[in-house]
Design goal:
The complex is a heterodimer of chains A (109) and B (122). Chain A has no helices and 10 strands. The mean pLDDT of chain B is 96. Classes of the chains: A mainly beta (109), B mainly beta (122). At the A-B interface, strand 4, strand 5, strand 8 and strand 9 of A face strand 5, strand 9 and strand 10 of B.
C-alpha cells in the first residue's frame, strides 16, 4: 500500500504570500494519478488539480502543481482570503484504489 | 451540470447498519464510477468504495466484510450499507463522481461531490 505524506501539517502565511505544499509518496507513482483537492471549513472537498499539474475547470491560475516520482508540490502563487483552507493530495492506484494524504492546513498568520 | 444529493440516518447505535443513498441529477450516470468517502471529526479523508452502473465494485480493504455498495440505475442512485457500526465510524460521509480525462494519458479524479451527511454512532 502506498502512503502519501503531506508537509507541513500547518502553514501560517499572510494574504499575498506564496504557499508551497508538499506531498510525498512512499514509493514512486505515476504523476498521471496524483490529484489535489481544497476543502474549506464546513464544505465538501473541491477538485483543484489532476495529473499532478492540470487545473480543473474554474480553478484560478495562481494554483499550480508539479512533481514526479515520489515528490509532488502544490503552489499557490499569491494567497487570496478564500485560499485559507485544508489541502489534500490523492492517488489513484490499485489497492486501495484511492489514497489520501493527511492534509495541509493553510492558515492566516 | 451534474449534482449529487445524498441522504441517510444521522444517528445510529453501535452494531446497527449505516445506510446512505446518493442520487445523481444531470445525466452521465452510466459513464462514470461513483464513490463514497468519509471524514471523521477533525480528521482527514478516507476512501470507502466505488461502483459503476453495471454494479462493479471496489472496496477499501479496511472495510471489506462490513461494506456493501449497490446501484439502482433506474433511479440513477447508488447506496452504501455499512454493518456493525462502532464509534469509529462516526464521520461526515460524502458521495462523489469519479471522472477521467485523456490527453496523452488517462487521469482520474473526483470532480463532483455531494454536500455530505453527518453520521454519529453513539
Amino acid at each position: 500500500e502506498i502512503v502519501l505524506t503531506q508537509s507541513p501539517g500547518t502553514l501560517s502565511l499572510s494574504p499575498g504570500e506564496r504557499a508551497t505544499l508538499s506531498c510525498r509518496a512512499s514509493q514512486s507513482v505515476s504523476s498521471n494519478y496524483l490529484v489535489w483537492y481544497q476543502q474549506r471549513v464546513g464544505q465538501a472537498p473541491r477538485l483543484l488539480l489532476y495529473g499532478a499539474s492540470s487545473r480543473a475547470t474554474g480553478v484560478p491560475d495562481r494554483f499550480s502543481g508539479s512533481g514526479s516520482g515520489t515528490e509532488f508540490t502544490l503552489t499557490i502563487s499569491r494567497l487570496e482570503p478564500e485560499d485559507f483552507a485544508v489541502y489534500y493530495c490523492q492517488l489513484y492506484g490499485s489497492s486501495p484504489r484511492w489514497t489520501f494524504g493527511q492534509g495541509t492546513r493553510v492558515e492566516v498568520k | 451540470q451534474v449534482q449529487l444529493q445524498q441522504w441517510g440516518a444521522g444517528l445510529l447505535k453501535p452494531s446497527e447498519t449505516l445506510s446512505l443513498t446518493c442520487a445523481v441529477y444531470g445525466g452521465s450516470f452510466n459513464d462514470h464510477y461513483w464513490t463514497f468517502i468519509r471524514q471523521p471529526p477533525g480528521k482527514g479523508l478516507e476512501w470507502i468504495g466505488e461502483i459503476n452502473h453495471a454494479g462493479s465494485t471496489t472496496y477499501n480493504p479496511s472495510l471489506r466484510g462490513r461494506l456493501t455498495i449497490s446501484v439502482d440505475t433506474s433511479k440513477e442512485q447508488f447506496s452504501l450499507n455499512l454493518k456493525f457500526v462502532t464509534a469509529a465510524d462516526t464521520a461526515v460521509y460524502y458521495c462523489a463522481r469519479v471522472a477521467g480525462h485523456y490527453s496523452l494519458y488517462y487521469s482520474y479524479f473526483m470532480d463532483v461531490w455531494g454536500k455530505g451527511t453527518t453520521v454519529t454512532v453513539s
